[in-house]
Amino acid sequence: MTVRTPGTPASKIDRTTPVSTPGGPKAREEKIVVTVRLRPLNKREQLAKDQVSWECIDDHTIVYKPPPHERVTQPASFTFDKVFGPACLTETVYDGVKNVALSALNGINATIFAYGQTSSGKTYTMRGITEKAVNDIYNHIMNTPERDFTIKISGLEIYNENVKDLLNSDPGRNLKLLDDPEKGTVVEKLVEETANGSQHLRQLINICEAQRQVGETALNDTSSRSHQIIRLTIESTLRENSDCVRSFVASLNFVDLAGSERASQTHADGARLREGCHINLSLMTLTTVIRKLSVGKRSGHIPYRDSKLTRILQHSLVGMHGLPSFVR
Ligand SMILES: Nc1ncnc2c1ncn2[C@@H]1O[C@H](COP(=O)(O)OP(=O)(O)O)[C@@H](O)[C@H]1O
Ligand SMILES: [Mg+2]
């Protein structure tokens, strides 16, 4: 199996000593967590006797061992907040981002991304993480009888800078983004449903997934170029007056990104970026935004407005919390 050097937004290569990535301990102050999951080889890859080029050598480091036909022959190591080997269960991966997901219950916006090449396991992992987060959210609600919770959900897909509602089955609709002076960027006419329990919320998430699959079938080989955002907006209010904070509201975004291989191609040829052909503008801009956020206040202008994905997520990225990324 040939595997490209990962183009993760916050990875750093070091051919001698592993060092911290911009998304590693230093970025913890910025509240960005970067984890990597390696998936096991699938049946086809096993039959083809594909070689695994990546190895987790401890909880934080993966090593890339170039296959013999590559020009670069020296192994390269990358460090992250946490790395998970092919035998790891999604439950273990979820434990690494659980605090991020649950922070939305206390009024802190959070975003969990899956970043990686097509077929690296983004959708598989995000499904599991979303499922486990929903369980934990409803457990928290059960254990917090003093508060009234309302959970709303919306789902959208961005393909070639067109925004589609995943809770509205009208496939032709391309939603507009509007600038609201109070709320920031809003997606005009995006359906937002209020979940009346965990089962209902799961049903709504399943509708989003099914809607995305309809789109993927229609798009064929371009399917890996769309981003999916499932947004839960969690509001809670104290039932009785006390010294505690009375109301919280925050959103929790689960973002299953388009395949990153397209982004690396565009890195190689900047002219094509300007021409806008076969380019995933949103993924490129997200990479820039996260790089800038990870270096902190010195980074100057952050180009949120350059793509639909970063415009829609701007509000959540400002107080950035989570960035799991996945390579294989
Ligand atoms: N950790 C894993 N363990 C077992 N199978 C996995 C794992 N991650 C991904 N897969 C399988 O690999 C295939 C590609 O995963 P998928 O999530 O669709 O990739 P992506 O969304 O990155 O394109 C799917 O068949 C999926 O079930
Ligand atoms: Mg996918």
Automatic annotation (TrEMBL):
Region feature (Disordered): 1-28
Gene Ontology MF: a single term: microtubule binding
One Pfam family linked to the record: Kinesin
Assigned GO CC terms: microtubule
GO biological process: microtubule-based movement
SUPFAM superfamilies linked to this entry: P-loop containing nucleoside triphosphate hydrolases (SSF52540)
Residues that bind ATP: 116-123
Entry's family note: Belongs to the TRAFAC class myosin-kinesin ATPase superfamily. Kinesin family.
Annotated protein name in UniProt: Kinesin-like protein
Organism: Acer negundo (Box elder)
